[in-house]
Design brief:
Helix content is about 60%, strand content about 0%. It is mostly helical. It has one domain (about 45-355). α2 crosses α5, α4 (about 105-130) crosses α9 and α6 (about 145-155) crosses α8 (about 190-210). The longest helix has 30 residues, at about 275-305. Its main location: membrane. Keywords: Membrane, Transmembrane, Transmembrane helix.
């Protein structure tokens, strides 16, 4: 049985000329016709080394989380993580980017989305770890988020969803159900599963909310998103320009740190640490490696492989986490659970890879699921949504 852990399509470069027919320029140039598949235009290649490092770092968050909640109370653990990430990334941003200049309205939007994306997502998941949800199952639930985000965009925003993406989500959910089997108590019971589902939904809704934070008010151009953190070396963000993704991350870390510190003191008291050595190690790993190093690796993957690059490797997180859980916790999967893991991973892999954009921004026959005619995707940009593709927030598992 599954054991319990130890506790893009680019934005338009200019406005359409008055009276022009949308897409007319694409019709005039067959090389950019989104309605046809062009074999001579290959998909961008996923960069092997940064992608492999990204997968390992991302997956390690699902190991450090359950390990950390054994050493320190979950809300306090999360609060300390965000405090460390805010201070270190804020200092780095000030040094490399210059002073932060974001309008008040942008700060409010970034904060609201950050509370959903980082705050609620991780509070629910860490509480789930605390009641016994396993690392592999947590990673698997979050791995469904790219496909679920696209489906939610179709339901809530009336965007186009392909049949393959819907089938991929159904297959992924079927795999999760197969892993659970008849005895949900092994996965933290109904409480653990409910918290895991709420965490995944918070991640998806926060991803959709990133459209709200795409640019400063004077410009319709979407930002590079947090996935491209480290790509630009410019400093402040003047009005009408894309929001600096690193400063956006600092804001969204900070807006979670303050209420979580207060909540931790109120609910968990002034002595929440049970094992100081493990607590310091896990807070350092989560705050530095997952939240900052993982952020920069994700930026490297997207810069070199395109907007869909992270989505195309996201299905690797659950099996990599399963191997890590076996090495760290001794967790093993029986035959039924192994079949469920394979089924879920295949469902996510097919759905996310079907959404990878062509170099011209199309996907060989259909508009991007995340946007209609150049609008930003749920991931914060045109083209297929990357998992955690959010302008200014950490991604799942970070």
């Amino acid at each position: 049985m599954l054991p319990r852990g130890p506790r893009r399509a680019p934005a338009p470069s200019a406005a359409q000329p008055a009276g022009s027919r949308p897409g007319a320029d694409r019709d005039a140039d067959p090389a950019t016709d989104h309605g046809r598949h062009h074999p001579h235009l290959p998909h961008p290649q996923v960069p092997l080394v940064p992608a492999a490092a990204f997968v390992v770092v991302w997956s390690s968050g699902y190991i450090a989380g359950p390990l950390g909640v054994e050493a320190v109370e979950p809300i306090t653990l999360l609060a300390l993580r965000f405090v460390v990430a805010t201070l270190l990334l804020g200092a780095w941003a000030r040094w490399r980017r210059g002073p932060m200049r974001l309008p008040r309205g942008v700060l409010v939007r970034l904060g609201a989305v950050g509370l959903m994306m980082n705050g609620l997502q991780f509070v629910f998941m860490y509480l789930a770890f605390d009641v016994g949800l396993g690392a592999t199952l947590g990673a698997l639930m979050h791995s469904l988020s790219p496909v679920l985000t696209v489906v939610l965009a179709g339901v809530l925003l009336r965007e186009r969803v392909t049949r393959v993406q819907v089938v991929g989500l159904v297959v992924g959910v079927a795999g999760v159900v197969t892993i659970l089997g008849p005895d949900v108590e092994e996965a933290g019971g109904a409480v653990g599963l409910t918290l895991g589902v709420l965490s995944t939904l918070s991640l998806c809704l926060g991803t959709l909310g990133q459209r709200w934070t795409a640019t400063t008010p004077a410009s319709p151009r979407p930002s590079d998103s947090l996935e491209e953190a480290g790509a630009a070396e410019a400093g402040a963000t003047p009005p009408g320009e894309a929001i600096d993704p690193v400063w956006a991350a600092v804001v969204q870390f900070a807006v979670c740190a303050v209420p979580l510190v207060v909540l931790g003191l109120l609910l968990e008291g002034t002595r929440p640490v049970h094992d100081p050595v493990v607590a310091v190690a896990t807070v350092a790993w989560l705050g530095v490696v997952n939240s900052i190093v993982g952020l920069l690796l994700l930026g490297a993957v997207v810069r070199r492989g395109g907007a869909g690059a992270s989505a195309s490797v996201f299905f690797l997180m659950p099996p990599v986490t399963a191997v890590m859980a076996w090495l760290c916790f001794g967790d093993t999967l029986d035959a039924r659970e192994l079949v469920g893991l394979v089924v879920a991973v295949l469902g996510v892999a097919v759905a996310t890879r079907s959404a990878r954009p062509h170099p011209d921004g199309g996907r060989g026959g259909s508009p991007s699921p995340g946007g209609r005619g150049g609008s930003p995707s749920p991931g914060g940009r045109g083209g297929s949504p990357s998992p955690g593709a959010r302008g200014g927030s950490a991604s799942p598992g970070v």
